[in-house]
């Protein structure tokens, strides 16, 4: 997958080695650490798609099992874990399923 530095309107699945490049090129990026077998993660998919379509944040997903070192680096000990990056730095972490409004409010809090 070619890494894009323009605004994305869909959820992008990354490998662990790509995360730093993408979050550094995004003013606000929300990363979901997930696993394929996680039911809650599957239920989050339409929420993440909606956020990608109508917020300015870059929405990313990283498979914990394929990128264990990256997951550990960012404290993703359970699935799903959401990490919000602002100007390339992690600023907030949420564990477990979240509702769409909670994630929208979190993104809006850092969109100035």
TrEMBL record:
State the disulfide connectivity: 38-41
The record's section on Pfam families has: Thioredoxin (PF00085)
GO MF annotations in UniProt: protein-disulfide reductase activity
Residues forming the Thioredoxin domain are 1-112
- Give the residues annotated as coiled coil: none
Keywords assigned by UniProt, alphabetized: Disulfide bond, Electron transport, Redox-active center, Transport
Q: Is this entry keyworded Acetylation? A: no
- GO cellular component terms given for this protein: cytoplasm
Keyword Transport found: yes
Record protein name field? Thioredoxin family protein
State the species of origin: Haloarcula nitratireducens
């Amino acid at each position: 997958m070619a890494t894009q530095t323009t605004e994305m309107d869909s959820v992008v699945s990354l490998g662990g080695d790509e995360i730093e490049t993408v979050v550094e090129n995004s003013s606000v990026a929300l990363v979901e650490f997930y696993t394929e077998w996680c039911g809650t993660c599957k239920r989050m998919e339409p929420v993440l798609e909606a956020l990608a379509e109508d917020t300015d944040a870059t929405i990313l997903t990283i498979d914990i099992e394929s990128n264990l070192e990256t997951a550990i680096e960012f404290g993703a000990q359970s699935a799903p874990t959401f990490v919000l990056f602002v100007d390339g730095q992690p600023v907030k972490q949420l564990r477990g399923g979240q509702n769409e409004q909670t994630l929208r409010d979190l993104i809006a809090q850092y969109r100035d």
